[in-house]
Design a protein that fits this description.
Length: 190
């Protein structure tokens, strides 16, 4: 009887190990970016796989229509904000500092205002807080923002060279932090 019980326990243990190994192939894989979502970026939520985004138009600083296709080939940090959003006011200088340091042919911070007051209201806000190197893109009707799932402000999306979302952070963040730069560098230099 003892021998039979030992064999049964061994069989069950092997079956559980086999089941675990077979099931592992079905386990969703975590994005390498999620491992970098620590410290000041702890609220960043990475997508398991890059996710296509809307190609609805928004307005560029020069008044022309733009879409994410205009940035193809470049990694984008897209910040959706509004002048009436207090946390937006707090994080905007960090976004500008990040853009000053890291902007290149490969990377850029894009700020997309949802203000109905248009470019003048957005630019006045930026002037008041001393942001001089970021020009506001506009989505006053919120069509693009709703299409990409923005429900509150601020929301910042990390977008790959093909215009796909890699992850997002809902709420304000310290975008000029070492943790934020590590996330971006991971995308720039995989």
């Amino acid at each position: 009887m003892n021998r039979t019980l030992s064999a049964l326990v061994a069989f069950i243990a092997l079956a559980l190990v086999a089941l675990f190994l077979l099931k592992d192939g079905d386990t969703p894989k975590e994005s390498p970016l999620q491992a970098l979502a620590t410290g000041k970026m702890a609220k960043f939520t990475a997508k398991a796989e890059p996710e296509p985004l809307s190609n609805l138009p928004f307005t560029a600083p020069d008044g022309q229509q733009a879409t994410l296709e205009n940035f193809e080939g470049k990694v984008i940090l897209l910040n959706v904000w509004a002048t009436w959003c207090a946390p937006c006011r707090h994080e905007m200088p960090d976004l500008e500092a990040l853009n000053r340091e890291m902007k290149s042919d490969d990377f850029e911070v894009i700020i997309l205002s949802m203000d109905r007051g248009g470019k003048d209201a957005s630019q006045k806000f930026l002037d008041e807080i001393g942001v001089t190197t970021l020009a506001p893109y506009l989505d006053p009707a919120g069509k693009f923002s709703r299409a990409i799932g923005v429900l509150g402000l601020p929301v910042t999306l990390l977008i790959d060279r093909k215009g796909r979302e890699l992850g997002r952070l809902v709420g304000p963040a310290e975008w000029n932090s070492a943790e934020a730069k590590a996330l971006i560098r991971q995308v720039l230099n995989p």
